[in-house]
Amino acid sequence: MKTIQMQIEAQVDEFVGNLQRLIYETAVEAVQRATAAKRQVRAQRQVSARRSTEALTSMADQLYQAVCEQPGESMRAFGQALGCKPRELLLCMRRLLAQGRVKKAGERQNTRYFPVDAPAKRSREARQS
Predict the structure, then answer these.
(1) In the chain, which ranges are continuous DSSP H helix?
(2) What is the pTM of this model?
(3) Gap between the Cα atoms of 65 and 96, Å rounded
(4) Residue with more model confidence, 84 or 37
(5) DSSP state, 73?
(6) 67-109 confidence digits (pLDDT tens)
(7) How far apart are CA 90 and CA 120, in angstroms?
(8) Which CA distances in Å does 35 have to 20, 46, 121?
(9) How far apart are CA 49 and CA 61, in angstroms?
(10) Contact at 8 Å (CB) between 62 and 102?
(11) What is the largest CA-CA distance in the chain?
């Protein structure tokens, strides 16, 4: 006949074994959920279509006109004027800067753009003072 202590130890060993198995199964399920969610996010991403050279040139010309009409403005203002997001204008603005048609002053959110070879217009800051 088993002693009480041996019976208690057997019960504790069984409990610990069940607990370890439960922890292992829970961890495996959590990893599976995480990898499944990652796969879903990858599947949901849309591949953006590349814009053609003609479309970029057209957008750059529109952007240059907006810079000429509103010198000293930010990309946000140009985006609103052209009806698109400022991020969509970055490549066109880089092209204009590289061509020397536009110059910039400031950094990050405070960057302002000015036409180089357009008739000089007073900026908003100059009009307000």
Answers:
(1) 4-44, 53-69, 75-82, 90-99, 124-128
(2) 0.55
(3) 11
(4) 84
(5) B
(6) 999 999 999 999 999 999 999 999 999 999 999 999 999 998 8
(7) 23
(8) 23, 19, 56
(9) 21
(10) no
(11) 106
CA dist., res. 98 & res. 73, Å (int): 19
Nearest in space to 73 (alpha carbons), one of 116, 114, 117: 114
Q: Tell me, what amino acid is at 114? A: F
Q: How many CB atoms lie within 10 A of CB 78?
A: 23
d(CA 80, CA 33): 41
Instruction: Identify the residue whose tokens are 């074994």.
Output: 17
Token pair for residue 103?
A: 């110059």
Distance between CA 101 and CA 103 in Å, rounded?
7
Q: Which contiguous run of DSSP H or E holds residue 112?
A: strand 112-115
108's tokens: 């990050």
Single-letter amino acid, residue 50 = R
- Taking the C-alpha atoms of residue 20 and residue 114, their distance in angstroms, rounded to an integer, is 67
Cβ atoms of 60 and 94 within 8 Å: the answer is: no
CA 53 to chain centre: 24
